[in-house]
Write a structure and sequence with these properties.
With 178 residues, the chain is mainly alpha-helical. It has helices at residues 3-19, 23-44, 48-65, 75-97, 119-125, 129-140, 145-152, 156-174.
């Protein structure tokens, strides 16, 4: 059996177990996806507490609704879609209750990964929400245009257009005009 076939089989069995109520299997899936989940949430939200809340709500909703997942191989796509919805809900709540934070474009420094303190992260934070999410999913989570299209429920052409706009804006912000 090829390695990719084995990994697909393993993932399928873990997702299947989680769908049948196995808490350990569910926790294993969450552990495999925790960095991706954090990066997507951080790409949308700026406040560390909002990020934690969105992730926590995502995990609860995913656990309660995992039985609705139709195809096991789309678990990650399904999970990220829930997370994006939670992040968008947090943004809507924040717009209603709080004025814009004076630290626009800043990032919370509590989380430490190899992307921290980079000009690129600050530049990405200056992008529109739709471009920031698309760039984050494509470059930080290594998702394909097709997968991003499915997650965001937009056409592949829209994803490509957002990627091109985001790249152009990043070149402009970072001073790398051609």
């Amino acid at each position: 059996m090829e390695l990719t076939s084995f990994l697909d089989y393993r993932k399928k069995t873990v997702v299947d177990k989680a769908k049948n109520g196995d808490k350990e299997a569910f926790l294993s899936l969450m552990d495999e996806n925790r960095l991706n989940i954090y990066r997507v949430a951080r790409g949308i939200l700026k406040n560390e507490e909002d990020i934690k809340d969105a992730i926590q709500n995502t995990l609860i909703k995913a656990f309660e609704n995992i039985y609705t997942l139709k195809k096991d191989k789309y678990f990650k796509t399904w999970l990220i879609r829930i997370l994006i919805n939670e992040c968008n809900e947090t943004l809507r709540k924040n717009k209603r209750s709080v004025a814009l934070d004076e630290n626009i474009g800043g990032i919370d420094e509590k989380y430490h990964d190899r992307y921290e303190n980079m000009d690129l992260i600050n530049a990405i934070n200056l992008l529109s929400d739709e471009c920031r999410v698309t760039i984050t999913l494509f470059y930080f989570d290594d998702l394909s245009v097709k997968n991003i299209s499915e997650i965001l429920k937009v056409s592949e052409g829209t994803v490509k257009s957002r990627l091109n706009r985001a790249r152009a804006k990043l070149r402009e912000i970072l001073g790398e005009d051609e």
